[in-house]
């Protein structure tokens, strides 16, 4: 059984097993913010009326939480009256929704909030505040520069991604700089001081993400990350629900191959339903190896959940017409990372990395 310090030391998503073999080339990303573009896809339709103003904001090289604080200050409302569905990359050009419940009096002149790095693209009224996680997914447009890859091998790998999806690993940013979120959680489990609500949430999420990645890595190594095995809890694509497959028949195999259903892994905590058979044995092996973190999550009454082991990459389009450049366009479900798509293709460097 490993200690928390041993798990954290040197941990990197880059070291996790790839599903489709080694990378087929190299390149660089985020040379400028426009090389990494993200468009948020809400999980519901806006009513066009109500007490909340939804603002679709384009931000360049700007942190989501910082922008939310500035927007609340501009609108002269308390932070609780402002909402957003998720955090977006800072070193990027991103477009995401924010909601504001204006106070009494005239509605603010939203155009006055704009500057060179922030533009309001749309405003719509809605009846409810925007809550965290209320997304269907995100669309990405990436430009990988300094490309070194055989075009034929790269196209073959891209086609494989389009057909099979990728392992749904949590990305590096989940764990904080130098895995600081994991360190914070390990100290909390050891009886250290409460770091505050926000920091505590980040730390506990990081531990659950780390444990999920461990289960997924074992399934990737065994070739079952996309293939259901007996005892799996399977999730229909686009759903949060799961169903138990005690045995695997031809219909389940067909649906999995068609990306209609996916095996799931644990977001550990107090679980209401567990996998059985070989699927359950894999998760129990991870739990036994990292018992102190499992016990810490359960002691703090963190509620368990499930996450798909695979994420479809669709529609996936690519363009290799510009010398030394790969342009990619694809959509991912909420909570999935564009960087885990890239790691199945290329060894990618970022400026300063």
Main attributes of the structure:
29% helix; 2 domains; 16 strands; Pseudouridine synthase; 353 residues; alpha+beta; 4-stranded antiparallel beta sheet
Summarize the helices and strands and which ones pair or pack.
Elements lengths: L3 H5 L16 E4 L7 E7 L9 E9 L3 H12 L6 E3 L8 E8 L17 E9 L8 E15 L1 H14 L1 E2 L12 H10 L7 H26 L9 E5 L6 E3 L4 H8 L3 E7 L9 H13 L1 H9 L5 E4 L1 E2 L5 E3 L5 E9 L4 H5 L4 E3 L4
Parallel strand pairs: 1-16, 2-5
Antiparallel strand pairs: 1-7, 2-7, 3-5, 3-6, 4-5, 7-15, 8-13, 9-10, 9-11, 11-12, 14-15
Helix pairs in contact: 4-5, 5-7
Would you write up a description of this structure?
By secondary structure, the chain is α+β, with helices and mostly antiparallel strands. The chain folds into 2 domains: 4-23 and 167-311, Pseudouridine synthase, CATH 3.30.2340.10; 46-130, TruD, catalytic domain (Pseudouridine synthase). Helices cover 29% and strands 26% of the residues. The chain contains 9 helices and 16 strands. It has helices spanning 4-8, 64-75, 151-164, 180-189, 197-222, 250-257, 277-289, 291-299, 338-342; strands spanning 25-28, 36-42, 52-60, 82-84, 93-100, 118-126, 135-149, 166-167, 232-236, 243-245, 261-267, 305-308, 310-311, 317-319, 325-333, 347-349. The strands form 3 sheets. Strands 1, 2, 3, 4, 5, 6, 7, 14, 15 and 16 form a 10-stranded mixed sheet that branches. Helix 5 packs across helix 7. The mean pLDDT is 94.
């Amino acid at each position: 059984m490993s200690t928390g310090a041993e798990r954290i030391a040197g941990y990197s998503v880059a070291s996790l097993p790839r599903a489709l073999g080694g990378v087929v080339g190299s390149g660089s990303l985020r040379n400028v913010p426009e090389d990494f573009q993200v468009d948020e896809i809400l999980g519901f339709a806006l009513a066009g009326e109500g007490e909340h103003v939804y603002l679709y904001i384009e931000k360049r090289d700007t942190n989501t939480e910082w922008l939310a604080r500035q927007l609340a200050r501009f609108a002269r409302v308390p932070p609780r009256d402002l909402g957003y569905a998720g955090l977006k990359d800072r070193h990027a050009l991103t477009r995401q929704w924010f909601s504001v419940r204006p106070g009494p009096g005239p509605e603010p002149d939203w155009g006055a909030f704009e500057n060179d790095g922030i533009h309001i693209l749309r405003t719509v009224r809605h009846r409810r505040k925007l809550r965290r996680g209320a997304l269907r997914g995100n669309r990405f447009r990436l430009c990988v520069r300094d490309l070194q890859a055989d075009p034929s091998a790269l196209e073959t790998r891209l086609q494989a991604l389009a057909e099979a999806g990728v392992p749904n690993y949590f990305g590096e940013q989940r764990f904080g700089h130098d895995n600081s979120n994991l360190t914070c959680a390990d100290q909390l489990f050891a009886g250290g001081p409460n770091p505050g609500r926000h920091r505590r949430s980040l730390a506990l999420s990081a531990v659950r993400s780390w444990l999920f990645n461990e289960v997924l890595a074992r399934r990737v190594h065994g070739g079952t990350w996309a293939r259901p095995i007996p005892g799996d809890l399977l999730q229909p694509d686009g759903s949060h629900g799961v169903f138990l497959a005690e045995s695997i028949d031809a219909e389940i195999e067909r649906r999995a191959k068609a990306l209609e259903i996916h095996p799931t892994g644990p977001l550990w905590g107090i679980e209401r339903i567990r996998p059985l058979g070989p699927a359950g044995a894999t998760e129990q092996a991870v739990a036994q190896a990292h018992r102190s973190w499992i016990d810490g999550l359960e002691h703090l009454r963190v509620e368990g959940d499930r996450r798909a082991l695979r994420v479809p990459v669709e529609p996936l389009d690519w363009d290799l017409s510009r010398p030394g450049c790969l342009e990619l366009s694809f959509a991912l479900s909420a909570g999935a990372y564009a960087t885990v798509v890239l790691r199945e293709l290329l060894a990618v460097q970022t400026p300063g990395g």
